[in-house]
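Notebook p. 47: complex prediction with zinc ion.
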Amino acid sequence: MEKLIITAAICGAEAFKENNPAIPYTVKEIGIEAERAFLAGASIIHLHVREDDGTPTQNKERFKACMEEIKSRIEEVIIMPSTGGAVGMTDQERLQPIFLENIEMASLDMGTMNFGGQEIFVNTEKTIKHFAEEMYKRGIKPELECFDKGMIDTTLRLNAQGLIKSPMHFNLVFGVKGGINATIRDLAYLIDNLPHNSTYTVTGIGQYEMPMAALSIALGGHVRVGLEDNIYISKGVLAESNAQLVDKIVRIANEMGREIASPYDARKILKIK
Ligand code: KMH
Ligand code: ZN
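Predicted complex, structure tokens below:
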């Protein structure tokens, strides 16, 4: 099997220090969390950023400051900014980080959905096409975020039209209220629908983070963990850091015989130039 790419989603936009004090807000906190996650075994940092008071922002200058802080600590890591941002942001706000220099990857959300029970995460086809076009113009590889089977179908349709380019890299997200559940059957169904030359990572939300990751490791997929998706290290026990979640995945992967990818390996596997 290929080496295992671990993505650390260190910050997100939905959880706050009130939920887990380890969630980073400041530029320095983001740098520290990214560095520790990398040292634990993550090769990709999926990045959202915050104002110092914790407010989610897609501000380009704030992303620049956070990315510089991360790169000053760990030059080789792949940083993948979010273009999902937080629910309710405009497209223009969300897209800002891709206009920075030397962006290798960015998230691209492949459909509209109820999100977390209360909100609607809006990604019209017009938005998706626009975001994709702007990414490809800049040589940025999109990570295709699919929260349900219909989003894979949309991706394949846009791929057939040449608007999403092969080889594609998917992030299959399980367990968001409004998206697909997190069962073995759901995982098998989504994977079964991916083109053979594509790669995928698996994200399980909340209690599903580790079980879904373990299944992906066994199947040859890649994994994402981090405080964006899950704030607990075990039932009722808050994670002390993103690195603690990455550590746990590395232990599981070691036991299962999957080697961990470095950023160099990850670029090769994902065919990032
Ligand atoms: N915060 C969610 C509404 C992404 O990063 O592209 C969207 C999200 C997905 O986190
Ligand atoms: Zn995200």
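Notes: The chain has nine helices and 14 strands. The domain at 6-270 is CATH 3.20.20.70 (TIM Barrel).
Next step: compare against the earlier run before touching the bench.
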